[in-house]
Amino acid sequence: MIDNWTLDALLSLCVAAAWAANWGFLSKRGAPETRQYPGFIAAASGGALVLAGLVAEGLTARVGKLVLLDGLVLISGLVLSHALARSALQRQPRRASQPVRRRD
Predict the structure, then answer these.
(1) SS3 letters across the chain
(2) pTM (2 decimals)?
(3) What are residue 97's phi and psi, to 5 degrees?
(4) Which of 48, 66, 89, 96 could covalently link to 14 via disulfide, CB atoms 3.0 to 4.6 Å apart?
(5) CA gap 17, 73 in Å, rounded
(6) pLDDT classification of 86: cutoffs 50, 70, 90
(7) Are the beta carbons of 11 and 52 closer than 8 angstroms?
(8) Which residue from 5, 4, 36 is spatially nearest to 21, judged by alpha carbons?
(9) 37-62, pLDDT tens digit by residue?
(10) Do 53 and 66 form a contact (C-beta atoms < 8 A)?
(11) What gap in Å lies between CA 17 and CA 6, rounded to an integer?
(12) Under 8 Å CB-to-CB from 14, ≥6 apart: which residues?
């Protein structure tokens, strides 16, 4: 019985983290404020999902695949956060004191 409660709590945490990140993403207006949300979804939801898999099945090959997928989603979330931050920096208007860099 305690495993069902634990499993439900972990899966609820996974969903709540995704909803919180989506709500935060939608409530911000500019790109600099929204760049951390994809990484947050990957870290918070993925960790809770892996723990739920461990509670449900123990150490099995299925949970190993879940850990591998969580790692890939975490890396892709971090790459997406970095890409959003880089594009936000490139789109900011330049001040008069900043030199213009030319690409050759």
Answers:
(1) CHHHHHHHHHHHHHHHHHHHHHHHHHHCCCHHHHCCHHHHHHHHHHHHHHHHHHHHHCCCHHHHHHHHHHHHHHHHHHHHHHHHHHHHHHHCCCCCCCCCCCCC
(2) 0.65
(3) -80, -10
(4) 48
(5) 15
(6) confident
(7) yes
(8) 36
(9) 767 777 778 888 888 888 888 889 99
(10) yes
(11) 16
(12) 44, 45, 48, 49, 52
The arithmetic mean of pLDDT across residues 25-39, rounded, is 67
Neighbours of 100 (CB within 10 A): 5
Retrieve residue 92's tokens: 């900011």
pLDDT at residue 61, as a whole number: 92
